[in-house]
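Dear Dr. L.,

I hope this message finds you well. Following up on our conversation about the binding site, I have prepared a predicted three-dimensional model of the protein together with adenosine-5'-diphosphate. For your records, I am including the exact sequence and ligand specification that went into the calculation, followed by the structure tokens. Please feel free to forward this to your student if that is useful.
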Amino acid sequence: WRPIEQKEGVVTEAISSVSSTVGGAEAPLYLPVGDETEVFAAAWRSGLPILLKGPTGCGKTRLVEHMVHRFGVPLFTVSCHEDMTASDLLGRYLLVGGDTRWVDGPLTRAVREGGICYLDEVVEARQDAIVAIHSLTDHRRQLSLERLGGTLLSAAPGFQLVVSYNPGYQSVLKDLKASTRQRMVAIELGFPPAEIERKILIEESGISDVEADNLIRLGQAIRRLDDAGLCEVASTRTLIAAAALMQQGLSFRTATIAAIAGPLTDDPGLRGGLVSLLDAYS
Ligand code: ADP
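The resulting structure of the complex is given below.
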């Protein structure tokens, strides 16, 4: 392994991305739970790709946005889905005013511009899209554009590939190839511990300590439910949404039904169970 040296702040301005924009003077708030920011920074400086694991709504995207801001590089976020093809990542020829012109996809742009390409929910992507990332994960950090006459691009300094997925949803069929995984640095996130999640809720929504405590206790109770039949539990994101609704003047009950119970299930029995639970914490 030949480490590459990347330095924070090489590019001073964080510029736009494909589906999210990170800009402004202040880095998006990210409260570390463990050593994830150190591991992330060390991997970026070494040019190593990252495998970010964790349940939906636990802070994966926020961590990436925070780090991108720290590094001062552009971010290209791609929400992967099962119809996504390699062309969606790499680029394609488009008709522009009667002419065909090659337009780089987000992965190609990140490689050329030295940005972070964040593939969110990568296990949703089709195998041909995944294949496109293989050569970028090894030490050559190269991207081959077959459709552009076999152009071989070497990643510019600053480039990093970050892929995220929810291990709870992982299907064996859609799993990443072991050889690709082994070339990546894993960061495993869970929901933040109560004390940190409480701070996040207060910072993000501005609710009072007491209201935050109630939401945190409710969140913990939902996460403790075994075999309730829920596909997801109350994530940090849903707790923040409930807090935001409360800040708009809604009661704890209305806000938590709207932001937590409703989104978590369509099953009337389960929903009833959740409503009784949240009534106990209001
Ligand atoms: P994921 O990408 O894992 O689905 P997000 O990164 O979108 O989840 O997190 C959802 C929300 O939770 C974020 O918008 C942010 O407000 C908040 N959040 C989660 N973890 C943290 C953290 N450690 N520090 C600050 N905010 C956090």
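In brief: The longest strand covers residues 91-96.

With kind regards,
A. P.
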